[in-house]
Amino acid sequence: PALREWLSAHQQAGEPVYVSYFGSDEPARFVPDPTLMPRLPTFDRPRPWYWCEPGIYAVSATMLQHVYAPEKARWSSTHELRYQQLRLNDAAFRAVNADPARQPAAFADVSMEEWSNAWTVYESLRFARLCQYLRARRPDGMAGYSILIYRLTREEIAGTLEGDVAALAKAIARAQDAPP
User: For residues 60 and 72, what is the distance between their CA atoms, to the nearest angstrom?
Assistant: First the structure.
């Protein structure tokens, strides 16, 4: 309910909302049409594939800290290498997502299950990388005591998710140097 209240006071018309929630409630009860990012517990419900775009990111503190995630705490060179390898498939992920029946011809030897497994790892690493940045950035708001809210720009997303580790480091340095 606190997130719904914050959004009613601050969300701009048409602004997308991304939610990473730690808890047993359903975010869609309080946020119309949220893009659901990784959450705990998962309840083994499939979530639509998504891409990070400018908008509002509401992240539970537990999810932000990656307390229960496979990519614990700090971003490592191993995480970076695997993320960059999987990021090379971003266009193919988009094509498969747009029409699973028409996998790109160049990737015809990869099953939908293999695509789904690769997506799951990619999404998890992408979220861990995003959280590495968000932990350095001051939130734009809070909903209740545990949901941090960030309004991310195209530049922040590009610097955080689309470049190499040097671009991520620059984005983190800019976030840390930003005035309060």
Answer: 16
